Amino acid sequence: MSEIMNLPPMRREDHGKKTLVLDLDETLVHSSFKPTHNYDFIINVEIEGRMTTVYVLKRPFVDRFLQAVSRKFEVVVFTASLRKYADPLLDVLDRENLIQYRLYRNSCRPMQGGFVKDLSRLGRNLNKTIIVDNNPHSYLLQPNNAIPIGTYIDNSRDRELLDLIDYLDNLDTYENVTTVLGSRNN
Ligand SMILES: [Mg+2]
């Protein structure tokens, strides 16, 4: 079922950078499949043969966050959602192409009734790979590479992405991120 692929080789300009793997739903945005007035943009997605309007609300500071992290990291979005939904969404969210690569559900490992994002299959140095995901199930294979983040729905006062910029700046100074992130799990 799953076709877990290595990423293409790191671009020359990203050599020496760490890889930042970002979840999409409830980490960077919240999408509603029911009409709502609380959204930043809409996309149209074909679901079960019908065109459906999806209302996408951006997490506060997501634009500033992507700008900041893309200067220091190779940025990858890894979503358990389907490509036909994630691609049109990311085309709008990331107009400046700050995200280098996109991985979708077909790159996840189905495990224990959910989708797991196995970072060991990306073709990157695990000591220099970080995942930010609101769902701990996503990183159960590599918890020492993970930065947990709260689930975003619509709290307009949410500032987790803003705080994360500084945290990642500091984490970037360490040779091996798992020594820092792993110590938080003990
Ligand atoms: Mg999520």
| Backbone CA Rg | 16 Å
The CATH H-level superfamily is: HAD superfamily/HAD-like
Q: For the terminal residues, how far apart are their CA atoms?
A: 34 Å
Q: What would CATH call the architecture?
A: 3-Layer(aba) Sandwich
Element string (H = helix, E = strand): EEEEHEHEEEEEHH
Q: What level of helicity do the residues show?
A: 10-25%
Strand order of the largest sheet: 6-5-1-9-10
Q: List unreliable stretches of 5+ residues.
A: none
Task: Tell me the count of domains.
Answer: 1
**Treating each run of at least 4 consecutive H or I residues as one helix, how many helices?**
4
Q: What share of the residues does DSSP label as strand, in percent?
A: 25-35%
| Largest pleated sheet | 5 strands, parallel
Tally of DSSP β-strands? 10
Oligomer: single chain
For this structure, the CATH topology is: Rossmann fold
Mean pLDDT over all positions: 95
Protein name: FCP1 homology domain-containing protein
Domain FCP1 homology: 13-171
Organism: Ceratodon purpureus (Fire moss)
GO molecular function: phosphatase activity
Can you describe what's shown?
- This protein is an alpha/beta fold and 186 residues long.
- The chain has a single domain, classed as Rossmann fold.
- The protein is built from 4 helices and 10 strands.
- It has helices spanning 62-72, 83-93, 160-171, 177-183; strands at 18-22, 29-32, 41-47, 50-58, 73-78, 101-103, 109-111, 114-116, 129-133, 146-148.
- The strands form 3 sheets. It has a 5-stranded parallel β-sheet. A 3-stranded antiparallel β-sheet has the order 2-4-3, with helices on one face.
- A hairpin with a 2-residue loop joins strand 7 and strand 8 (114-116).
- The longest helix has 12 residues, at 160-171.
- The chain is globular, with a radius of gyration of 16 Å.
- Bound molecules: magnesium ion.
- Magnesium ion binds at residues 23, 25-27, 133-135.
